[in-house]
Amino acid sequence: MAELADIGVLGLAVMGANLARNAARKGFGVAVFNRHGARTDELISQYGSEGRFHPAKEIADFVAAIARPRPIIIMVKAGKPVDEVIEELIPHLDEGDIIIDGGNSLFTDTNRRFHYLTEKKLRFIGMGVSGGEEGALEGPSMMPGGTLEAYSRIEPIVTKMAAQVDGEPCCTYIGTEGSGHFVKMVHNGIEYADMQLITEAYDLFKTVYGLDAKTISDIFAEWNKGELNSYLIEITAAVLAKVDSTGKPLVDSIVDEAEQKGTGRWTAQSALDLGIPLTSITEAVFARALSARRAGRAEAEKLLPHAPVAARKPSPADIEAIRQALFASKIIAYAQGFEQLSVASAQFGWKLKLDELATIWRGGCIIRARFLNRIREAYKAGGGASNLVLEDYFRDAVLKAEPAWREVVGLAVASGIPVPAFSSSLAYYDGLRRARGPANLLQGLRDYFGAHTYARLDKPGKFHTRWAQDGEEVQVSS
Ligand SMILES: NC(=O)C1=CN([C@@H]2O[C@H](COP(=O)(O)OP(=O)(O)OC[C@H]3O[C@@H](n4cnc5c(N)ncnc54)[C@H](OP(=O)(O)O)[C@@H]3O)[C@@H](O)[C@H]2O)C=CC1
Ligand SMILES: O=C(CO)[C@H](O)[C@H](O)COP(=O)(O)O
């Protein structure tokens, strides 16, 4: 009898094909299947010699080729296709088999699928996978959520497939139900904020200082040697340095309309539901939405012309100020994202281990960055509970950056350059460290028009002023 595969991969587009190759290269037998068989043929003809592949053209043959209890990674378009594939698989599966959804599924869909398949005596793992094409092949960051018992079955495989940093795999058990996909969603939200901050720094260099793409690339390459060291800063330098066949910087020819598949928007929506002030990520989503209105922006520019900015060569101090503003804003984005994870964990009973999330994001994924080590240390020491910004390393960093941060946001405002992520991060920082803000007036207004009541600083209870009658204050509860 032919040897059975250790794992199956269904869906062989860029992510699935590379995950299958990754597993095969690590010595696992991999059954592979794709709805349209041409992708299966292509994978086997190009990379079949990399390991023990079991290609199948029928879903029954695919399932039959895997050792029981069968772990099957599905890597298809998020949404309806995941439900369709699950339904196609179910008749061929046996009790205890494990479906692992490795796509970017919405965590509430994962919750639903988890319970649906549990009722059918099948096991389901919603596993966030990050790293793009290269990460999937060389070692991604993986965020599996489901039962610990189901995870134990796949642990020897996925921890070997994942990226490794300092001997530790960038994969750990996250928690029950859709927790793995929730964590991946917030990862992507942070990715949105990181990229928005980078584009704002780029815009300042380009529009205020008139620098060309190559010069800006050199600045980012330099920044990548310090505390901003990260995959996204590294690839920013690479994208800006790229010259196309016309001999000009490629970036100058790319249309300035950002697309999005949904994970950033979901992160912002979840933050609204949870009551988290997730300003940086949400501004990044809005910035993409505004960028997508290209024709409208061109029309508005004609009707609302702005004075051209007189370019001036930046001094080393000007460049350093933008770096500091970027670093401080990045800290705020991560602090907000981790607060969202912490609140969701409590709300949904997931018991997320925030230090372990920082650990598995240090390698393989798109937001991998040197300073995740600092986040890991903060949470490992039992800190970070109220807000990452209050932890020593991050507090020192934002205090140091504060003057430059204000200067950069001021420069952008004066120059008419939108920096929504820089400025909203600064506004959040200023709001966070104010023991008394202006919401007292807001409460007064709510009470005026809607008798919504207010609390007082000088005595306990809830109060209402009879604004439209005798103007007297009455206590409505103790
Ligand atoms: N691309 C990336 O960088 C990353 C993607 N992801 C996520 O991973 C998943 C896969 O991504 P990617 O590899 O880019 O591929 P796509 O999201 O482009 O999906 C294409 C794959 O889905 C299959 N598919 C679509 N509809 C169906 C259906 N109804 N039934 C069966 N199969 C279907 C396609 O099969 P067929 O060939 O037959 O059309 C193909 O294999 C997505 O959820 C994505 O969001 C996660 C991290 C990074
Ligand atoms: O999950 C990913 C990286 O982590 C995918 O690349 C995802 O597609 C990125 O999101 P968007 O397409 O909305 O920019």
Give your account of this protein's structure.
With 478 residues, the protein is α/β, with parallel strands linked by helices. The protein folds into 3 domains: 7-177, Rossmann fold, CATH 3.40.50.720; 184-432, N-(1-d-carboxylethyl)-l-norvaline Dehydrogenase, domain 2, CATH 1.10.1040; 439-477, Single alpha-helices involved in coiled-coils or other helix-helix interfaces (Up-down Bundle). Helices cover 54% and strands 10% of the residues. It is built from 19 helices and 12 strands. It has helices spanning 14-25, 37-47, 59-64, 80-89, 107-119, 132-138, 148-161, 179-208, 213-223, 231-241, 263-274, 279-291, 294-303, 316-348, 354-360, 372-380, 392-415, 420-432, 439-450; strands at 7-10, 30-33, 53-55, 71-74, 98-101, 123-130, 141-145, 164-165, 168-169, 454-455, 462-465, 473-477. The longest helix has 33 residues, at 316-348. The protein starts with 6 loop residues before the first strand and ends with a strand. It binds NADPH dihydro-nicotinamide-adenine-dinucleotide phosphate and ribulose-5-phosphate. NADPH dihydro-nicotinamide-adenine-dinucleotide phosphate binds at residues 11-16, 34-36, 39, 75-78, 81, 84-85, 103-104, 129-130, 132, 261. Belongs to the 6-phosphogluconate dehydrogenase family. Residues 180-468 form the 6-phosphogluconate dehydrogenase C-terminal domain. It holds the Pfam family NAD_binding_2.
